[in-house]
Known about the structure:
Order of helices and strands: HHHHEHHEHHHEEE
Strand content: 5-15%
Strand order of the largest sheet: 3-4-5
Helix content: 40-55%
Number of helices: 9
Radius of gyration: 23 Å
CATH class of the largest domain: Mainly Alpha
Distance between the termini: 49 Å
CATH topology of the largest domain: Helicase, Ruva Protein, domain 3
Number of strands: 5
CATH architecture of the largest domain: Orthogonal Bundle
Amino acid sequence: MVDLAFVKVPGCLCTSRIIAATTTEEFERHVKQDPAFARRFGRPIIVGEPTTDVALTIVGEWKQRIEEVHPGLTIADDAVSAAVELSAAHVPDRRLPDKAIDLLDDAATFAMLPTIHQSGSGPSKTGLTLTREHVEAVLQEQYGVDVALVGIDAGRLRTALERELIGQEAAVEQLVSSGITVLGSPTASRGPHEGQRWVYFLAPWGMQFELVSFPEGKAYEKDAAVKLWHPGHPAQ
């Protein structure tokens, strides 16, 4: 189900009153438990997730609202398109259009942060244009998705993964040969877990998994009496 507040409010704010549940679970919890209340609605209408084309129209209507919240900001059309396209491709656990609106709004907030710090009290009144690059940066910050890596050819992807995920050659080969979507570039841990590298990837059914590699152990293990079990050294 999709939150009708996001779909209907922009075009029907003054003409319609709507009571809606975002999910079937919310309907069960807040509406169906009261039979007298539920009877007044008759048969529930299940609204499916909109297509990317429809979501693009909805998010476009929200563009002005986000600009009003961030004075001095102009949102380019390519930023709106990127919010819909990238959220649809890389945020599988949420639904359009709300995930695209949130991504665009977060990108606007992050883009305005330098001007907020410089002025001390509020955003700068000098113009700032929000572009696709801002949306991509927020996608990588929040979800670990490096758009520059997603979509590169299999050979380059294999080289990038093998360089970082030491000791995981077979796993890397399986990911690449199966056409699995890799979400971002491998990341090196810091602190006690230094020596560990990991990367997220998306299963064909939409679930996100993590591939972890620490063939030489982690930093804390040098002085630790107890170590994590390692498949390469099962007896230790």
